Amino acid sequence: MFRKLRNRFLIVNLVIITFIMLLAFASIYTITYQNVRKGIDMELHRVTDFYHNPDGNKGVPRPGGSPLPQQSYDTAGPPPERSVSFLLQADDQWNLVAANSRFDMDTDFYTLALQKAASSKSDNGQFHLEGNTWAYLVQKNGTGNSVVYLDITAQMNILTNLIYTFSVVGFIMLIVIFFTSRFFANRSISPVKEAFNKQKQFIADASHELKTPLAVINTNADVLLANSDDTIHNQVKWLHHIKSETERMKTLTNDLLYLTEMEDSRAGLLFANFNISEAVEGVILTMEAVVYEKDISLTYEIEPDLSLRGSCEQIKQVVMILLDNAIKYTKPKGSIALTLQKRHSDILLTVTNTGEGIPSDHLGRIFDRFYRANQSRSRKSGGYGLGLAIAKSIVEQHKGKIYAKSVLNETTSFYVQLS
């Protein structure tokens, strides 16, 4: 499924970028072609004026001599911009009468050039002859047809080389774009893939967590049905088991609903300024009895009168989750330390407890739903692995950060940074 999605992204990217690239190349080529054609036309007309201006110029006979009669032109100096050009005079039947050229060519060459011009229905055009490209312009006069030829091989080579360049560059760019698009396509679907996998894992974990209490309820119900003649007093043990598992399921569903509400962007949170120092101290006082009962040492250091804008009840819930988590995983005679202090412009809450610690490869996942580093202790601790996920959602709603550090068989610390 994800491969198809990636390929779809890849194809769409390639099609769009290829279209843009072709459009850019076509635009550049069209502009270049128009400029080259315009330059050729201007040069051809300048050369034509050069050959047909008897007053300001003096004719130049064809070098090397020729049996063809030379037509004299009053031309002076070379043609404009030293262009390779020549003029042929033909009668009405397109028979060669005279030639005015700056280079020596045989009669067959001139005859072929005249035939190219005669075979065209237009007074101007271009053709290939003996490896060169020529542009011509026909003008009728009293003795027949006067044709001026201009060598435009260099200009046409520019256009040809431009096409070759575009082809090579385009091919290389397509290869680069393919691998680049593939890289970004993989990155684009990574969040989708991660969300999909998390959803699958969430469904599997939720099903697993519900499976155990449902099995317990079903078993106890079967026992009750098997002893239907007994009094309720004699069956109270099984009823207590059913009640206990029902409460566990209720807690699970409430936590899941709470997480959903927290992650819903439409869930409007009413933030107000409150004294976070007093809020944290109040939570500690409610937890002291549990700490004392488990024979754990609890120390805390709270900077007084720290103010925070947010939800007081939700921040209390974060503190309670972290303390409850620390109590669950701290052995008797162990210790828990809590600090709340101002650090630069932020408020930093730290909860540290002694114990087994968390392996480094688990630290990045302990805030996922249903995730527990030690699965065997899940039912003993009485939790579902949703507490830290709820704490993370609350902290993120407050634009803060929550993270953990641990040293195996020594300490585990949770940090909440709020601004």
From TrEMBL:
It catalyses: ATP + protein L-histidine = ADP + protein N-phospho-L-histidine. Keywords: ATP-binding, Kinase, Membrane, Nucleotide-binding, Phosphoprotein, Transferase, Transmembrane, Transmembrane helix, Two-component regulatory system. Residues 205-419 form the Histidine kinase domain. Coiled coil: none annotated. Pfam families: HATPase_c, HisKA. The chain crosses the membrane at residues 9-31, 162-185. This is histidine kinase. It comes from Paenibacillus anseongense.
